[in-house]
Amino acid sequence: MRTERTRTAISALTVAAVAALASCTADGGGQGSGHGSGPAHAAPPVASGTLEQLAERAGCKPDIQTEAEELRQANCRTEYGRYVLATFSTDRGQREWLNGAKDYGGSYLVGAKWVAVAEPAVLTKLRGRLGGDVETAAPHQSGGGEGTSGHHGS
User: Fold this and answer.
1) Phi, psi at residue 73, to the nearest 5°?
2) Of 127, 105, 84, which is closest to residue 27 (Cα–Cα)?
3) What is the DSSP string of 32-62?
């Protein structure tokens, strides 16, 4: 099916692009930096919207890299660092993308049909603007561990 082939090609391209950024975060000593820097740094409600709306809320003018029905992806640069922002048309597409990307390790801020990929310090700042959960994964884990998830619980 043409859509499945397109989705596979886009997923492979996107995961490769994100892997380059994630590999920068995997060895960056940001372990344990997870959700924020203390009780006074509570995240807002999880943002939703288009890629442009999310980027604006985060203080970025997006440089669109991927434009497809299933996935839109942009590079962003702000005063607190650079990151990749991706939006998805379905929850399933987001889950599949995250599962593939986590094979490369890194840190991810995950919201409703969107993901931001950056170093942990940048994700902490983004989380203050967009909400969401921080998830981290070690590169090429084998042995049943799928990374850690930063679940809210609040």
Assistant:
1) -140, 140
2) 105
3) T--S-SSTT----SPP-S-HHHHHHHHT---
With tokens 């003018």, the residue in question is 61
Contacts of 117 (CB under 8 A, 6+ apart): 18, 21, 22, 25, 83, 84, 86, 101, 106, 107, 108, 109
* Residues 64-104 pLDDT 10s: 999 999 999 999 999 999 999 999 999 999 999 999 998 99
Q: Can you say whether the dihedral through the CA atoms of 41, 46, 47, 51 is positive or negative? A: positive
Helix (H) or strand (E) run with residue 139 in it: none
| Neighbouring residues of 61: CB distance < 8 A, sequence distance ≥ 6 | 55, 76
Other Cβ atoms within 10 Å of 5 Cβ, number: 9
pTM: 0.69
Structure tokens at 8: 């596979």
